[in-house]
Design goal:
The chain is of the alpha/beta class. Helices cover 33% and strands 18% of the residues. An 8-stranded mixed beta sheet has the order 1-2-4-3-5-6-7-8, sandwiched between helices. The longest helix has 15 residues. It is globular.
């Protein structure tokens, strides 16, 4: 294992040799947590300890983020899924629970569909199947995020992540607004990978019991994507959080983490 200076971090390697930083904490059955687009493993800092009573948590700096390599690309959600399998192989994990949110949920779809023997239970949060069947964010959201003024775009993203009521009591900093050290080519690569995602035809291949979670006020990934996923994945249950936006897992942490934990611990 490569010494990174962080006792929880080791370096795996993708099929193409790209370094993949991964972090493992806690004891118990492995739970791999997959973050949103252009974010590193700190996306999960606020909630990962909620699962340590029964699970060890594994996070990944997807290529282009954190301490992982930052090749030119192109990137894809299928490639990110292959990277996840490389991390599991590196850690000697034959079978894990998988919890992916946002683009991490897109990646998790491929992990579960292509490698059903490696996934015991699956949680997909604030995500979509992608492609022509998905319900896309509206044009006003795209314009808000594409503003030339970086601070205005940042404020727009915060508003998409969290409700005003939650923000009033949580002034930040926030770990879900993107990895600030990503080079531009990697940031663009993540955006392109997320935009090109289309797992519609593969979703029926997911054999793991699956929990679908979403905030009903999510404008970044509209909640109408949840029933679409439910129609395609064979064994699903779902829950929608009233008033929550994209980062429901933080805003509704108590309820969301409890639901996930109960689901992961229900059955062999």
């Amino acid at each position: 294992m490569t010494d990174t200076g962080d006792p929880y971090t080791t370096i795996a390697h993708a099929q193409d040799g790209t370094a993949l930083a991964c972090q493992r904490m806690g004891d118990g059955h492995p739970l791999i947590l997959l973050a949103g687009q252009a974010n590193n493993h700190h996306w999960w800092d606020a909630v990962r300890a909620d699962f340590h009573a029964t699970h060890s948590t594994i996070t990944v700096d997807m290529r282009g983020t954190g301490e992982s390599g930052k090749p030119q690309g192109p990137y894809s959600t299928q490639q990110f899924a292959d990277d996840v399998i490389a991390v599991l192989d590196h850690l000697g994990v034959e079978r894990a629970d998988v919890y992916g949110t946002s683009m991490g949920g897109r990646v998790a779809q491929w992990v579960a569909a292509r490698h059903p023997a490696r996934v015991r239970r699956l949680v997909l949060g604030c995500t979509s199947p992608g492609g022509p069947h998905a319900v896309e964010r509206d044009a006003s959201v795209r314009r808000a995020l594409a503003q030339a003024d970086p601070e205005a775009a940042r404020r727009a993203l915060i508003d998409l992540m969290y409700s005003p009521a939650w923000l009033a009591d949580h002034p930040g900093p926030y770990a879900t607004l993107g990895d600030p050290d990503m080079p531009p080519h990697a940031r663009h690569g993540h955006l392109a990978a997320s935009n090109r995602h289309d797992a519609w035809d593969a979703l029926p291949d997911i054999m793991a019991p699956t929990l679908l979670l979403h905030g009903d006020q999510d404008r970044l990934t509209p909640p109408d994507n949840l029933p679409l996923l439910a129609t395609r994945i064979p064994r699903t249950t779902s829950h929608v959080f009233p008033g929550a936006r994209h980062a429901y897992f933080e805003e509704c942490r108590t309820d969301a983490s409890a639901l996930v934990s109960a689901f992961l611990n229900d059955g062999p």
